[in-house]
Amino acid sequence: MTEVLLERNYWNDFADIYLQREDVSFFTKNILVVDDDQDFALYVKKVLSDIEDLSVDLAIDHSAAWKYLNRKDYDMIVMDIAMPSVNGVDLAKSITEWYRKGFPIIFVSGNRERRVDLIRKKFNSNHVDFCPKPLDKNFFKLLVKRRINSW
């Protein structure tokens, strides 16, 4: 009985110290932005910096995206569709098959009509959204908040 109490006190002290650290949040959501246009990816990160408790990483292609996905647990992906090496829709499809099913993905693209049709053909799910380029910052932030909080 004494050992259990001592152990419990140890963990309570550890938790108190851990929670006092400013860089720790149990509510932080991780988002991976995959876009070959580095300027646009940085812009997305800046837009999302207004949302509290979000951590945003940037990948410029499919191989960088997989490296991030193998190292960290993500809650959402923001993905460009038209990328030179691998189509963003195909990459997202493989991510949902191998990484996590029902994973929230927001596609971004400058060609809305053709892209939305492509997305609908590949995904039969309501975990996927589309946001046209150029981004409407307010709409995009609302979309991200809605998706990230429903996951």
Total number of helices: 6
Largest sheet: 5 strands, parallel
Examine the coordinates and then state which fold CATH places here, giving the name of the CATH topology. Answer: Rossmann fold
Helices and strands, in order, run as: HEHEHEHEHEH
User: Which CATH architecture is right?
Assistant: 3-Layer(aba) Sandwich
Write down the domain tally: 1
- CATH homology superfamily name: Response regulator
What would you note in describing this structure?
It is a single chain. This protein has 151 residues and is α/β, with parallel strands linked by helices. It has one domain: Rossmann fold. It has a five-stranded parallel sheet, with helices on both faces. The longest helix has 19 residues. It starts with a helix and ends with a helix. The relative contact order is 0.14. The N terminus is likely disordered.
Give the secondary structure arrangement, pairings included.
Elements: H1 2-20, E1 29-34, H2 38-48, E2 54-59, H3 62-71, E3 76-80, H4 88-98, E4 105-109, H5 112-122, E5 128-132, H6 137-150
Parallel strand pairs: 1-2, 1-3, 3-4, 4-5
Comma- or semicolon-separated keywords:
alpha/beta; 50% helix; Rossmann fold; single chain
Briefly say what this structure is.
It contains six helices and five strands.
